[in-house]
Amino acid sequence: MIGSLRGRVVSARGSVVLLECGGVGFEIHATPAALALATPGQETTLRTTLAVKEDSLTLYGFANDDEREAFAAVQTVSGIGPRIAMAVLAQMTPTQLAAAVASGDTAALKRVPGIGQKGAQRLVLELAGKLVGVDDVGATAGLPGASGEVVAALVGLGYREDLATEAVRGVASQGAPSSVAELLRAALRTLGGRP
Predict the structure, then answer these.
(1) What whole-number distance in Å separates Cα of residue 45 and Cα of residue 8?
(2) What is the mean pLDDT of residues 112-129?
(3) Whether the predicted model's global pTM rises above the 0.90 cut
């Protein structure tokens, strides 16, 4: 698989970036965030995924690993392929996607072209717990980035990362703490530690 490409941007039109790497021009179907990195004439690096079909090879490009992982996760949902996965990332960031899945916000998911009520419900059901690498807890709690800080603090105190993440997610699902300190105290109580 081609995991990333670095080269000179020849053009960025519509949703396709033409990236020249070692004299070869690669057409990459890119997310809006990846397109923002693609300035014609400048060098850039895009994370990529190669989709292989019987009659075609298609490169998809992303601004970062979170986008690439969200793209892969969305395609694990039955009935969703690369085209709809790209449409999801054109409508929302990985953090927004994780927050929508965690909170069961099918209305936000239905705003993606090609996803109806049943598709949105499948996304919520089948992606639950699969977007762990994305900072979904902070988005769900209304504290962007806070969950990552709290998980890091708990790991620093000696808790396993998976237990820390689960505790923070559990606290966040019960309501939005008003501060990072409150989120940390609540997670410590969940883990049996002292505030």
Answers:
(1) 9
(2) 91
(3) no
